[in-house]
Structure formats: C-alpha cells, structure tokens
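[PROTEIN RECORD]
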Amino acid sequence: MMSLTKLYPTNARVQLVGFALTVGWLMLIAACAGSSYAPSAIEEVPFLERAQTQVKDKVRVTTSVPSAEESRALFGVSLYKRGVQPVWLEIENLGDEAVSFLPVGLDPEYFTPIGAASSTQRAGLKPAMARHFFQSGMRAYAGPGETASGFMFTKLDEGTKTFNVDIVGVVDKSVQFSFFIPVPGLQIDHQNVDFDTLYGASDIVEHDADGLIAALHNMPCCTTDKKSKGQGDPLNIVVIGDTDDVYYAFIRAGWDETETIYAGSGLKTVMSFLSGGEYRYSPVSGLYVLGRPQDVALQKARDNIHERNHLRLWMMPMRFEGKPVWIGQFSRDIGVRFTIKTITTHKIDPDVDETREYLLEDLAYHQALAKFAYVDRVSAAPIEAPRHNLTGDP
C-alpha cells in the first residue's frame, strides 16, 4: 500500500488511507456477522415428521423435503429464493454388500453443498457456512450394516416433489425408489377436494366397456360457466385410474400442480405476465362440469406464462373395472390477455384434437399409460367455421 501512495499526491493519499480504514471497518462487521451464523439443528425443525420410507432388496430409504421456511432455519439462508431445494435422505444398508447412491438419478442438475451455499452469497462465502453445508451433504457410500444420511441440493420444485433414489451394488443389480413428497407452502387447488366423499355409494355406477362408451356418448360436449350456461372449452379427454395413480402419473411426466386464486398467487401471476417469466403453479380459472369447477388442475409450463399446457379434471360418478373415471379438458395456451374477473386469461390453440394427441404421447413417453382408446363425440369443425369457447376464442 505504501508503494502505491507514492504514485499519488498528498490529498489522494489521504483518500486512499481513508478508504482502507473503511474497508477494514466493513471487514470487521462481516467477521462479526460470520461469527453469528447459527443454523438450527435437524432435530429442531419439524420437516422429518413428513418423512416417507420405502424398503427394497435389503435397503431402507427414508426421505423428506423441508419447506422454504424450514430450509432457511436449517441452513441460515433463503435457498428457495435462489432456486435451490434441499432433499434429506437416509439410506440404511441392511445387507452384507456395500451399496452406492447415484445423485444424478435424483436430479441431473443438482448442486454440490458448496455450490448451493455459494449461490446465496454475493459478498463471498463465509467459512462457517461453507463448513455447515459441506458437513450436511449426502455421502454416496454405505457399507454393510451402515447408514448414510444427509442433504442433496436440487432444483426447486414446489407443491409435490417427485424424484428417484437409485442404489447400485444391491446383489449385483440396481434398485430404484420413487418418491412423491408434499412440500408445504403452496395453496394447491385439489387439497380442498375430498374425493372419498365426493359421491355417495348409491350415486356411483359401475360400467363395462360398452356401458362406459354409452355413458361417455351422453356426456356434454363442453364445459360451461358457473351458471351452467354457454359452451366453453371442449371436453376432450377421459382418464381412468385411482386418484393417486392419476395424480402421480402426471407429476412423473413433469406436470405441475396449480395454486388457488388468492392475493399472493394473483400478484405472482401479474408479475409473470408483465415480465414474460415462468410461474409454474399459476392459478387456473374455473370451468364447470356437472355444476362444479374442476376438481384438479394441472399444467406444464413452456418458455413463459403465456404458453402453457392446461389440464382440468372432474371425477365422475362412474367406475370402470373398479377404478374412478375422470373427464377432462386439455388445452394448449398460445397467448394471454388481461381480464377484469380473472386477472388474465389464456387463448388456446383451436386444434383441440392435436392438443389431446400431445397429452396421449406425453403420458406414453413417460410410461404412465396402460391402454388408450377413442370415443366419437361431436362432428368436426372446419377451420373456416370454428366453434368458440366462453371467451370467444376459436
């Protein structure tokens, strides 16, 4: 520093010394802040109360996902705001052969512990924080009778977190565990629906194949408004399966849940609309079948909020081979505009048959489809004379 001051006049030297003193003062403040870094112990944060456990081939895997608030308590920083989500794993090797966990199977774009910590710090990573993240990380190896536990740092998925835990070295073969972990924080629309009591036992009709086809022929062609008037987006899909199977099939295929319409989700929708950014859980306006809005809304984001794929499902008072029957409306967004009632509304691609084929292929590609068939409903509408939905779009 003294050699540098020789290049400057006296007044410049005073400024340089003053700057050095200021930097020293700021460094002292930073050192004090670093010494106060005190994240909570795992036992003090209740996220493990939601843990799920599976056992296969002498390996027991237990996992849980902390919420945004719980993650901040565990690591002392706002990981969710940086798009980082910790996933806690415990792998118990119950056999006599060493096993290894493959992190890429859980998230091919996972963060290392130090990388996750660094993503939250703009002024440099504090040693205490680096040490805590590093010591909290998941190790990949568990010898016979050993237990390995720790956190994986993954990309953020709110709502339901779905992932695989791949283990190798189990009797010379690999074993895969699939988990669907609810994460507190989002106000998901279908959480308010009790599917077990949606219909009384006397209301449900069991159909064979011919009976199901006849029942679907008698279904209305389209959704309606709240007063059961008008023709909205067409009903173009039927899904057959137990509630969890249907739900997990779409989650596994990369579909996201949908938030209810409230002040917080409305603000996020407006911000995404203005910025063109991605809001994966944006609320979906209500369309009506049998006098009620959709029971479940799912979506798959594309480049931005203006272009999404929307799926609405209603559980029907029908069963086929003992499984619930769901009728649905599937659309592909190609634009968006402001409305007074719902803040924004989407214009859909008018070729709803092609849109349905995309959904069929998407589920098949992700190995979530057992069988499929077609049922004739309404006559084709030529492009010169399209039908229109409730908002006037073709």
About this structure: The first strand starts at residue 52 and ends at 56. The two ends are 72 Å apart (CA to CA). Residues 1-34 have pLDDT under 50 and may be disordered.
